[in-house]
């Protein structure tokens, strides 16, 4: 089924592949949009994620220092050290072991709405499912999970008129994670936090701030991106009922949904550590670069007829990144999406939108692509 790429993508590919713009917060940045350029720059060591390499013009989202010492703000060798330690704890066995619990949680959430005629699949399903998965992964006790979700929702979508709400939520999460880490250190369990505490490489271990920051990163990225991917994935499938959705084919459909509607169309900012030539445009040292995977994934030079949703197509999307910062939790995200989307389709074959598509509400963000709600009729 055919859709069209946003017109601005074509304009940027053709005339301004490294375009200088100003973000809503006033930060001047350079947008890079062509697939080949984005992929190459994701693996280019001259682009740093360390904010100390910027020229000071980037404003962006700030965190307390104890939450900032994570993989998204580190270059090698610090990034290499922590990624190695994380990989020793975030094993394929641990990720695969979550599958039964993810399925159980998805079924329980859908059981709660099955008796109704209508549901909001963001509020009732896509939102609570990733929080439950992350809580299972980190080892958050059941009694604390309602608070955990409330803080997460407030952090990502603070109430209008309360500018301090997000900061309070971040502070509450920080305090809670410190308490949880202390409990895991005193009484280890079979969860990722306990494994991260125990992980070592040549006698090296993660510091307290590194542990807290990693836990926060898993919460932040694993929640927001998965919520958006479930919601937009289901919407795309409702638009295109002809797409393959049976279990043997669902994996390839999920990959195409990720290409077509990446939950984070603009990846983490980078800073040029020296002058970098991009398509004949010199990006000066210290300038902020934003790599727009939402445009790169629709580049016709990389994906013929990119506005079509075509499961099984050749080529690799960039929605999980590329290079040393490729998403460490990508295997878990794929399992979550296959279970989350597949379970809805299996249980509610008559699923359809409850409102005209033009009335759907989207999160106001240049960085994330996600629905605020997805009202559906279940039968």
In short:
The protein has 379 residues and is of the alpha+beta class.
Structural description of this entry:
With 379 residues, the chain is of the alpha+beta class. Helix content is 47%, strand content 9%. It has 15 helices and ten strands. The protein has helices at 7-15, 35-42, 65-68, 78-89, 92-97, 99-114, 122-126, 128-138, 145-156, 165-186, 192-198, 208-239, 247-260, 293-296, 330-347; strands at residues 18-22, 28-32, 47-48, 118-120, 270-272, 276-278, 281-283, 288-291, 352-353, 375-377. Strands 1-2-8-5-3 form a five-stranded mixed sheet, covered by helices on one side. A three-stranded antiparallel sheet has the order 4-10-9. Strands 6-7 form a two-stranded antiparallel sheet. It is globular. The mean pLDDT is 89.
Fold topology:
Layout: H1 7-15, E1 18-22, E2 28-32, H2 35-42, E3 47-48, H3 65-68, H4 78-89, H5 92-97, H6 99-114, E4 118-120, H7 122-126, H8 128-138, H9 145-156, H10 165-186, H11 192-198, H12 208-239, H13 247-260, E5 270-272, E6 276-278, E7 281-283, E8 288-291, H14 293-296, H15 330-347, E9 352-353, E10 375-377
Parallel strand pairs: 2-8
Antiparallel strand pairs: 1-2, 3-5, 4-10, 5-8, 6-7, 9-10
Helix pairs in contact: 4-11, 6-8, 6-15, 8-9, 8-12, 9-10, 10-12, 12-15, 13-15
Q: How many individual helices?
A: 15
Going by helix content, strand content and strand pairing, the class is alpha+beta
Overall CATH class: Mainly Alpha
SSE series: HEEHEHHHHEHHHHHHHEEEEHHEE
Mean pLDDT: 89
Give the CATH superfamily: Cytochrome P450
Q: Features of this protein?
A:
Cytochrome p450, three-stranded antiparallel sheet, 15 helices, 9% strand, monooxygenase activity, heme
């Amino acid at each position: 089924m055919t859709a069209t790429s946003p017109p601005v993508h074509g304009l940027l590919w053709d005339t301004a592949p490294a375009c200088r713009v100003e973000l809503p917060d006033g930060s001047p940045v350079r947008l890079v949009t062509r697939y080949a350029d984005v992929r190459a720059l994701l693996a280019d060591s001259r682009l740093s994620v360390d904010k100390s390499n910027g020229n000071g013009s980037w404003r962006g989202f700030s965190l307390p220092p104890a939450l900032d010492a994570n993989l998204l703000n580190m270059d090698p060798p610090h990034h290499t050290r922590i990624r190695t330690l994380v990989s020793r704890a975030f094993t394929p066995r641990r990720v695969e072991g979550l599958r039964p619990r993810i399925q159980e949680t998805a079924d329980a959430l859908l059981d709660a709405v099955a008796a109704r005629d209508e549901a909001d699949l963001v509020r009732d399903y896509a939102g609570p499912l990733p929080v439950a998965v992350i809580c299972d992964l980190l080892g958050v006790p059941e009694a604390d999970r309602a608070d955990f979700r409330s803080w997460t929702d407030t952090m990502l979508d603070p109430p209008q008129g309360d500018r301090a709400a997000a900061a309070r939520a971040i502070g509450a999460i920080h305090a809670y994670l410190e308490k949880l880490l202390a409990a895991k250190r005193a009484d280890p369990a079979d969860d990722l936090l306990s494994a991260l505490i125990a992980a070592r490489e040549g006698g090296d271990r993660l510091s307290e701030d590194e542990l807290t920051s990693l836990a926060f990163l898993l919460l932040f990225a694993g929640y927001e991106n998965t919520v958006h991917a479930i919601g937009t994935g289901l919407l795309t499938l409702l638009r295109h009922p002809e797409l393959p959705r049976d279990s043997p084919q669902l994996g390839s459909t999920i990959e195409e949904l990720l290409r077509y509607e990446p939950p984070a169309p603009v990846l983490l900012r980078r800073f040029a550590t020296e002058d970098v030539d991009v398509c004949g445009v010199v990006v000066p040292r210290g300038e902020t670069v934003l790599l727009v995977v939402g445009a790169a994934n629709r580049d016709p030079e990389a994906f013929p007829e990119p506005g079509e949703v075509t499961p099984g197509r050749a080529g690799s999307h960039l929605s999980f990144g590329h290079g040393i910062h490729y998403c460490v939790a990508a295997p878990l995200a794929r399992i979550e999406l296959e279970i989350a989307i597949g379970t809805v389709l299996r249980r509610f074959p008559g699923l359809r939108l409850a409102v005209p598509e033009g009335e759907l509400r989207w999160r106001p963000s240049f960085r994330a692509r996600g629905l605020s709600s997805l009202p559906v009729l279940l039968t």
